[in-house]
Structures are given as C-alpha cells and as structure tokens.
Design a protein that fits this description.
Length: about 375
C-alpha cells in the first residue's frame, strides 16, 4: 500500500486564502478583515463587526444605519417555526436552534438563491432571528409567554429583553455586545469549516448554517463555556480549585476553557472577558465562584510552558452567569455571535468555490473472498 502523509484533524493544513480573519497563534493576534480585535472590542458594535465581516470594510454612518434597520426589522419568527419550537421545547437549546434554522428555510423567499445579494438578505434575517429563537425557546420551556422583539433596542439589548422580559441596563447590554464581537469570527474553526464544506457543495445558506450549528455544540468547541461553569460548581470552593484541577490533569482530562488548536499563548479575546467578568463580579460583590475561576487559572499556570493557556470560553461563561443566563444557553449565545463568521466564510466559499473533499488513506484488508451466507 502506498505511503502517504496523514494529517489527523487536518492539523496545520491550509485550505485556502481568506480575508475573514488573521490569527497568529504564537503572538496571540486576531484581526477581523485587517482590524485588530482589541480595537474592535473597544470601539465597535456587533452590528458594525457583522457588516465588516460580510462586506470586507467598515460601513459608513448611512450604511450602518440601514444595516441596523435591516436587523431590527427582521427579528420576527414565522408562526410555523414558532410551532416547531414549542413542539420540541424540552430539547437542548442548541438542538432547538438547529431545528428552527432548518424550518426557517421553508419560509424564506430566497431559500434556493445562493447569489451574494440573496445570501446577505438571508444572513441578515438569520442573524436577527437567532437571538429571538433562543430567547423564545427559553421562555416557552419555562411555561412563559414569548416576548415580542423591540425594534427600539439594539441587537444585544433586544436579546436580553426577549429573554428576561425586561429592558436591560447599559452595562448588561454592553457586556453582551462585547461578547458577541469577541466570538464573531475565528477562521477555519470546526463549525466554520463545516459550514464551508456544506457551501462547497453549493448547498444553500440555511444548510451551511445548520452544519455549523451541529458542529459548534461539541464540548471541544462551542460547548466549553457550559463545561467551565460545570467545573466551577463541581469544585465548589476556592480552596478546592487546585487539588481538583491537579486530579483532572492526573487523570489525563482536559480542563474546559484552556488550550487551543492555534493559540499557543493567551487567546487575545480572553483578556476582555476576564476584565468584564471581574468588573461585573465586583458590582455583585465578587461571588465565590469568580474566585474559583481565578484559582483554576492559577492552578493551570504550569501548563503554559506546553502552550496551554486560557481561551475565549473560560471567562465567557462567567459573564453569561452574571447576566442570569442559564448555562445551557451559553453555546447558543456563541452561535448568536458566530453566525456572523459562518456567513462570512460561506460568502467567501461561494465566491471562489472548490468542492471540499479530502482523502482517507485506506488501511484495511484487500481482495477478501466473499463467503456465501449459508457457509458462514
Ligand atoms: C473554541 O478553533 C477555534 O478557533 C475554536 C474557537 C473559536 O473561536 O472558534 O477558538 C473556540 O472552541 C475554543 C476552545 C474551547 N474548547 C475547550 O476549552 C475544551 C478544552 N480544550 C481542549 O480540549 C483542547 O485544548 C482543544 C480541543 C481546544 C485543542 O486541542 P488540540 O489542538 O487537538 O490539542 P491536543 O488535544 O492534541 O492537546 C495537546 C496537548 C495534550 O497533551 P499531550 O498528550 O501532548 O501530553 O495539550 C494537552 C493535551 O492533553 N491539553 C490539555 C488541554 N488542552 C490540551 N490538557 C489539559 N487541559 C486542556 N484544556
């Protein structure tokens, strides 16, 4: 059998050129369409970052205003999809979101049109509807009536409003907006790669986004933030953090919120979420579990020499928890942000498509004789 070079997990393999984002895993740099994540975190909004990712440049005031209107006026969920959500309201929020997106395709007038213009229209509708779907499901499963979207609220505020049934304060709105900016796009991560594979067959945008959603759910990817809070609850007290982490590591287990396929230094997004979690925690009297998080980070310090540092998900769970968001909504919030990146990647794939079809090297037996059933 011929010798080939295998690349498990496609580790270190470049698929194509992109302008979506630049990641330097050694320096800990992240750029979206050439703009540094630290500048965007400080100055931008999720709406503006989404426009940047899809159109490749920052919008003018008029363009951003129109894009913002497009999002605010497309938040409604078709009654048929609302019925689907209610039917499966006892499912995991990611399963409900994934199913709702599939159902939305049946109601979208542009469903079969893969043109750039139609993809932008569908992308805006899906981006606007994601928060509405997640919030509506969260209320239905509690036996509460859904809250209608408020076009007077921006993307982040409207999500919190539809989730909790009351207008959020500026600090909470800013916290969600910052989190959405930080999670919006990250190159060929597993879920974006899955969306690209679907798009490379010329499947439509809803199919590609559904592929991304299915992939994001895994705990090695989007599911880590939920795992971080489960870890914090299991540890229970700050003094138990170090022994607990040491035990996990001794058992060869991965500590959620640490390590990264590309970053071998601190994930540049983590500092913004660490600061946010600390500030929000201080406002609420620094709950013990925040101290547990810091003790876990201290206990993981020795692994830095192996290139294992805190990643974007370690503190994002703390921010969501402080916002009173249920833990099984943490991955859906990641999806509410990452749909901006998925659509950016799908638009690039459509624009310069090659069917994505890697090889598997056959390592099994050959030419086995077929034994009739009666003789087995
Ligand atoms: C995201 O790809 C992206 O860009 C993703 C993301 C995005 O924005 O889309 O950044 C978002 O998914 C962040 C990652 C969230 N996942 C987690 O926090 C789960 C915990 N992390 C690990 O499972 C792991 O770090 C991965 C999956 C994230 C990366 O794994 P790799 O690149 O396949 O590395 P590996 O598993 O081969 O680990 C290399 C070594 C191993 O030790 P050795 O066998 O060489 O002795 O590092 C160790 C691992 O055991 N290691 C860890 C660890 N992560 C890696 N040890 C303890 N705890 C960890 N978290």
């Amino acid at each position: 059998m011929d010798q080939v070079e295998l690349h498990p997990g496609l580790r270190g393999i470049y698929l194509d050129n992109t302008r979506s984002s630049f990641i330097d895993g050694t320096a800990g740099t992240l750029l979206y369409q050439g703009y540094n994540i630290h500048d965007l975190a400080r100055e931008s909004t999720f709406e503006e970052v989404t426009y940047l990712l899809w159109f490749g440049r920052l919008p003018t005031m008029a363009e951003l205003r129109q894009f913002d209107v497009d999002l605010r006026t497309n938040r409604a969920i078709p009654p048929g999809v609302m019925a689907v959500i209610d039917l499966i309201k006892n499912g995991h929020p990611m399963d409900v979101l994934r199913t709702a997106v599939s159902a939305l395709a049946a109601f979208d007038p542009d469903a079969g049109d893969n043109s750039f213009e139609a993809s932008i229209r569908k992308g805006a509708r899906l981006t606007a509807q994601f928060p509405a779907i997640v919030a509506t499901h969260a209320r239905l499963r509690q036996g509460k009536a859904p809250v209608a979207p408020d076009p007077l609220l921006n993307h982040a505020a409207n999500f919190l409003y539809m989730l909790h049934g009351q207008k959020p304060d500026a600090t909470s709105t800013r916290a969600v907006d910052l989190d959405l900016i930080l999670h919006a796009e990250h190159g060929s991560n597993a879920s974006s790669f899955a969306a690209r594979v679907a798009a490379s067959t010329l499947a439509d945008l809803h199919a590609a986004v559904t592929a991304g959603l299915a992939t994001l759910k895994g705990p090695l990817h989007g599911g880590a933030a939920e795992g971080v809070m489960a870890l914090v609850h299991a540890i229970g007290s700050p003094e138990n953090a170090e022994p607990y982490v040491k035990r996990l590591l001794a058992e060869g287990k991965h500590v959620m919120g640490f390590g990264h396929r590309v970053y071998k230094t601190e994930d540049p997004r983590a500092r913004h979420l660490r600061d946010l979690a600390r500030k929000m925690g201080e406002d609420r009297g620094l709950p013990a579990w925040y101290t547990i998080l810091t003790r876990v980070e201290e206990a993981m310090a020795p692994l830095r020499q192996k290139g294992i540092h805190v990643n974007v998900d370690f503190y994002s769970g703390a921010v969501y928890y402080l916002l009173g968001i249920p833990e099984d909504l943490f991955v859906p919030i990641f999806a509410i942000s990452r749909i901006a990146g998925w659509i950016c990647q799908v638009l690039e794939q459509y624009a310069n498509n090659n069917l994505i079809r890697p090889l598997l090297h056959y390592a099994g037996p050959v030419d086995l004789p077929y034994v009739p059933l009666k003789d087995r």
